[in-house]
Specification:
mainly alpha; 50% helix; 10% strand; rod-shaped
């Protein structure tokens, strides 16, 4: 009788491991795809935020032009041609002036922003 209980116990363990293995085989590739997609979405959102901040900064500027700069990830380097210049980092919520996606950006005098993906 004891042997039947042990055999039943091992059968239950085997079935649980098989089910978990099957679920893992299905879920792990999906999780990898979601993580990759999240990075792309984050970079797109960050570019949109930078472009919006540049537009706002140029609207506040008297000269309505930027000092061309790039490639850079430091938003403290992006300045208007005003005296004193406006700084893009003041228009973005960034720690230390750098953004989080790891992308770098090129800014032209008219406010065009080009993202260079990492």
């Amino acid at each position: 009788m004891q042997e039947k209980k042990v055999a039943g116990f091992f059968l239950e363990i085997f079935i649980i491991v098989a089910v978990l293995g099957t679920l893992s085989a299905i879920a792990i590739p999906r999780v990898g795809q979601m993580i990759a997609k999240t990075g792309v979405v984050a970079q797109g959102s960050e570019l949109h935020n930078v472009q919006t901040a540049v537009i706002e900064m140029l609207c506040d500027s008297n000269t309505r032009t930027l000092e061309p700069v790039g490639p850079t990830a430091d938003m403290n380097e992006v300045l208007t041609s005003d005296t004193p210049p406006l700084v893009l980092a003041d228009y973005l919520a960034v720690d230390g002036g750098s953004l989080s996606s790891g992308s770098t950006y090129i800014f032209d005098a008219h406010g065009k922003v080009t993202q260079i993906l990492r």
